[in-house]
Every structure is written in C-alpha cells, then in structure tokens.
Write a structure and sequence with these properties.
It contains 1 helix and 8 strands. With 94 residues, the chain is mainly β.
Length: 94
C-alpha cells in the first residue's frame, strides 16, 4: 500500500468513529501534588499540553475539559517539572 493510500485509509477509519457533533468531556485526575504540575497530552496533538481548568491541592486532583467529535480520546497524563515534562510511553483510552 502506498503512503497516500495509507493516509487515506487512516482518515476513513478515523471518520468512521466520529460523532455528529463535538462534545465536552470532563475528566478528573488524582495525583500527588508534590510532584509538579499535571498536564495532559492527547491524540489530537501529542506535543501540546492541555492545562487543567481547576486544581484542588487539598484533595490532590486536577480537572480537565476535553472537546472532541470522537467517542473516545487517547491521552497521556504528564508531570511538568523544572527538569521538563515526564511523558508515559503508552496512551490511555478514555
């Protein structure tokens, strides 16, 4: 299969799982708040940080809102510290 055919095939598969309209997904992630700032990376752009909409340092969680037109989102929770961003190897399907 040529490169163009593979891209076209991947686009068709992605469109197969798209919804009629975009929806907002609320997500709460619990983590130890002494480790750094929690951000998310998603399959929409693996290099872009999604910042939390709210942080509760007392209960150690961050809330995020993700907008997507797909029934699922792959994401990676990452810790941003002064040394950089710690990114896990495998994504999580949500």
């Amino acid at each position: 299969m040529s490169g163009n055919a593979q891209v076209l095939c991947a686009c068709r598969i992605r469109n197969l799982f798209s919804l009629d309209e975009a929806r907002e997904l609320p997500l709460r992630v619990y983590y130890p708040n002494i480790c750094g700032q929690l951000v998310l990376r998603t399959d929409l752009d693996w290099d872009k940080d999604v910042l939390p909409t709210a942080i509760d340092p007392k209960d150690s969680f961050a809330e995020f809102k993700l907008e997507t037109a797909h029934p699922f989102v792959y994401l990676k929770p990452c810790l941003r510290t002064t040394q950089g961003c710690s990114v896990p190897q495998e994504p999580i399907a949500w």
